[in-house]
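Entry 14. Ran structure prediction on the chain below.
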Amino acid sequence: MKKKLEKIYMGIILLFMYLPILTMIVLSFNESKSRSKWGGFTLKWYLNLASDSDVINAVANTLIIAIISTLIATIIGTVTCVAMVGLNKKTRAVIMGMTNIPMINADIVTGISLMLLFRVLHFNTGFITVLIAHITFNIPYVMLSVMPRMKTISPSVYEAALDLGAEPFFAFRKTILPDLIPAILSGAMMAFTMSLDDFIITYFTKGSGFDTLSTKIYNEVKRGIQPEIYALSTIIFLAVIILIMARRGLRARSMQAAGKKNVSYAKKSSKGRNFAILFAVIITCIFVGLSFGGVFRTKENQVYVYNWGEYIDPDVVKQFQKETGIEVVYDAFESNEIMYAKVASDNAAYDVICPSDYMIARLIKENMLQELNKEKIPNAYANIDPNYMKTAASFDEGNKYTVPNFCGTVGILYNKKLVKEPVESWDILWDKKYKGQILMQDSVRDAFMVALAKNGYSINSTNPDELKVAAKDLLNQKPLVQAYVVDQVRDKMIGGEAALGVIYSGEALYTQRENKDLAYVVPKEGSNVWLDGWCITKNARHVENAHKWIDFLCREDIALKNFEYVTYTTPNLKAQQMIEDESIKNSKVAFPDEDTLSRCNTYLYLGSKADEMYNRLWKEVKSGE
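Output, structure tokens:
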């Protein structure tokens, strides 16, 4: 009975460990992008991955950073440990204590401190800064492995070799180094693993346009988890399994060989050749990685773009590069606040960015944007609907800094099979019969917008009493909420996992394609109509190319292509006229009518004090206090 219980227990543990991985592997072969809908077997996500040069570069960068940082850190760490043997006990303790600080510190502290150091020294962040950062945090792991072993080695043999006339390095190589090799290899393996797996320190020191595998996956996830990520993760998982099995096989063969009494001289001498081959392979990997990773390649004709995730058709980027010869260095963000922090810390990191209305107002106020040269973007002023230009002027007076890119509304997506009554008001999100079936946006402005509009207040209210009422309503609603999410609203609603969800209009249009039972409405109390626009940063390094990028995306055929991919409302009037699908062309979700827009307002920048008040109350709501 005891053995059966042990097996059941282990089975449950293994199930929790590997069921998510198995799910991921299955989804990597799913034709549909939805995680809750099986669209048939496909290999296209793997094919897409194989043709993605950005992912290939990220893999190359990851390997090259890991290999070089491991080699350098291993040498420095080992030499330091050997040198410390001659020091007194207290000095060694102090040095080891200082060395251990990076391991004790949270990675985010190390990452931010290194980022600030590089800023002070005016280093251009990229390959070199990431390499220095990895060497820095790898050295302690090498020393942690080598130092204990060094303490156990008697120096008498080394001293005897010196007395017999051997050179110091020769004596060290023949007497000390062989005993240190296992510890050195152990430290190197630890350093390699830490470098390969690192995200936080790399994220803060990499700058724009340079990615390792971890930061690339993070950027891809911000687009809303794409099937290519499942494919990449599956490949990584299988590679790890193969390496583990190969390592076990080699270890078994080594133990078998060690158990034999007679080992030929040829086998002994082959070890040296094996190390030489391994070294040659490492050097080859370094140069191949540097070549594919683009470290040796310098290009002046570039434009650095910072945009929302899943906010542009990848083919549009390729077409722009082909037509103009300008290389696009593209990064994505998942919130205005994250974008702001990045641009505020390094205004020259990106040339062109795509913030939302209220954030554009803040950037203008803080002198972080430059005025657009209207003569260089003729498509913008010829094609953009004047009504949207007027909307943009509400936060960018005179349309000096912004060209509208996408826009939309915030409303309620509901499942007609689960919700039989008419959905007309925000009040339905407080109906107790839908407990556990309501999805709210995990966004301070969007969540408070719902509660403020429900009570008839301005969605840009800075009145403390009104905000307290809204916060109280959100607290009362919390027991009814299934989850506070962003991208997951789409998949959960498609899969029928919830009855009601607050969602953006573009996402609603996509969900209706996947599930015909879903409907979208902007409640009668009103809502937010948002507008995202292209802006050029104050210290942009490629201003001419940034204008070419904006003008290209305002071309009607390109705007149409982007609309069909993203499904958010395009403010490009000529692109709207080119839409062939009448159901989409006449859709009030894609293109809200005047009655809907009359009930909606854009978010305004409310100032730092109001932001603090919103954030404090939102924390209270999320913590349930």
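The CA atoms of residues 101 and 529 lie 49 Å apart. Will compare against last week's run tomorrow.
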